[in-house]
Amino acid sequence: MLVTTSADGTDVRAYDEGKGPAVVLLGPGLDDGTRCRRLAGVLATRFRVLRPHRRQYRMDLKPDPRLGGSPCTIAEEVQDVMALVRAVGEPVVLYGHSDGGVVALEALAASPSSFAGAVVYEPAAVIGPPLSGEDGHILTQARAALAAGRPGKAMAVFLRGSVGMPGRQASLAGLAVALIPRYRRLIPGQLDSLDALDRLGVRLGTYATIKVPTVLLGGDRSPAHLGERLDAIERVMPHAERVIMRGRDHGADLRDHEQVAGIIQRLADKVLHPSTG
Predict the structure, then answer these.
(1) What's the pLDDT score for residue 67?
(2) Signed CA dihedral, 191, 195, 196, 198: sign only
(3) How many helical (H) and strand (E) elements, i.e. helices and strands, does the chain have?
C-alpha cells in the first residue's frame, strides 16, 4: 500500500503492485480500490500499477458514513491523483472509468505534463441537464430513501434515474448492491459522487484543451446516454482515439478485464515507448 499526502493534507491511499512505468487506475462508483484488481493483475506484469481508494468513497472521511451527504469535490480528487504522480516522480498513464473517468479528464486538463497518456472509459460527464435531473429530484429521492434506512431503494432510484436502467432491473440491482456489505456501505459515496458531478457541471470547453494522447473507450451494449457523453467529448477532443468494444457494456472491466487491460497496455506502449509501440 502506498500512502502519500494530498494538497490539503488528506492522506491518499493506493494499492501498489508491479514494477516499471506507472499506471494509475481510477475505478468507477462503489469502488474501494479493489474493483480494478483484475486489471492490475494483468498490467502489473509489466507496469507499476496504483489503485487508489478514491476520496469520494472513503467513508472514514465522511461526517456520517451511513448517510454521506458531504461530497468531496472533483477538484479534491484531482489533487489526490496529483499526489500519486508526485510520489511516482514521473508522468504516468491514467485510466478512469465512469465517475473516475471524469476525475481523469479533469486531471488531464489541470496538469497535462503529469501524464504520458490516458484511457477514459465511458465518463459520467455532464453534457447538458444535471445527472440528478433539472430539479435534483433523483438525488433528493435517493437520499431520502437512504435516511429512511432503505439503501437498496436509494440505489434503485440512482440506477433508474441517472444510469437509465429499466425500473424492475434497477430495483433488483439496487437490492443486490444493498445485500453485499462491502457495496452497501459505499452507497452514500455513490450519491455524493452524483452530487459532485452535477456541481462540476458541463466542462466540454475545458476538455477541448486536453492534448495528452487519450483513448475514449466505450461498449456497444452500454446505455445510450454513455455513448452520447463520449460523442460530445470526442467532438471537442478531435485528436483522441475512439475505441468501441463489441458486445461489451459498462462492466467490461469485470467481464473482460483482459481486453480492457490490453487497451491500456497498447496505449502505454505507444506513449512510453514510441519507437516500438
Answers:
(1) 79
(2) positive
(3) 12, 8
pLDDT in tens, 181-194: 999 999 999 999 99
Contact call for residues 51 and 25 (beta carbons, < 8 A): yes
Q: SS3 for 131?
A: coil
**Residue where the block lists cell 435531473:** 133
| CA gap 108, 146 in Å, rounded | 34
For residue 73, CA distances in Å to 18, 40, 44, 165, 196 come to 30, 26, 30, 26, 6
What is the mean predicted confidence (pLDDT) over 87-105?
98
pTM exceeding the 0.85 threshold for the entire prediction: yes
pLDDT tens-digit series, residues 12-47: 999 999 999 999 999 999 999 999 999 999 999 999
> Which of 80, 129, 128, 101 shows the shortest CA–CA distance to 210?
101
Instruction: Determine the Cα–Cα distance for residues 225 and 250; give it in Å rounded to an integer.
Output: 11
Q: Would you state the cell numbers that stand for residue 266, as one nine-digit string?
A: 497498447
For position 276, what pLDDT does the model report?
Answer: 44
DSSP one-letter code for 146: H
Locus of grid cell 491518499 = 12
Q: Could you give the dihedral angle defined by the CA atoms of residues 48, 248, 97 and 257, in that order, rounded to the nearest 10 degrees?
A: -20
SS3 212: coil
Dist. CA 205–CA 213, nearest whole Å: 17
β partners of residue 25 = 95
How far is it, in rounded angstroms, from Cα 235 to Cα 91? 26
The amino acid sitting at 192 is D
One-letter identity of residue 120: V
The pLDDT, as a whole number, for residue 274 is 62
